[in-house]
Design a protein that fits this description.
With 122 residues, the protein is mainly α. 18% of the residues lie in helices and 0% in strands. It contains five helices and no strands. It has helices spanning 5-8, 26-29, 56-59, 86-91, 113-116. The radius of gyration is 23 Å and the shape is elongated. The structure holds calcium ion (4 copies). One calcium ion is lined by residues 60, 62, 64, 66, 68, 71.
Amino acid sequence: MLSNEIEESTCTDPQDSDSDDDGIPDGVEDSNHNGVVDFGETDPCDPDTDGDGILDGDEDSNHNSIVDNGETDPLDYDTDNDGMDDGWEIEFGLDPLVDDADEGVPSESEEDPEEASSDDSE
Ligand SMILES: [Ca+2]
Ligand SMILES: [Ca+2]
Ligand SMILES: [Ca+2]
Ligand SMILES: [Ca+2]
């Protein structure tokens, strides 16, 4: 049985340019082509590298391995750091690129204490 040691260590198939079928070619995900998922690279064996429920190829919609304007970060499950996963935000109609954590949560606890004492008429 012939085994290719390099290919054996990863899931990547030389016959398949997109092993995890996330839309981004293996060679773009493993941008330095060393068979290792380095810092800043998406995993060519995992269609959802950050596990936020959105495929890498949907986050990096133009498949260039760069987080462009309007794209979520395939390496950050919470691109806008508002505490909600990108996939969760999309599911609930929020914008994963906008911190909308306190949207709809009223924070009107500030009342002017001088408003209460209005007995000093002119
Ligand atoms: Ca891929
Ligand atoms: Ca993802
Ligand atoms: Ca991109
Ligand atoms: Ca978020």
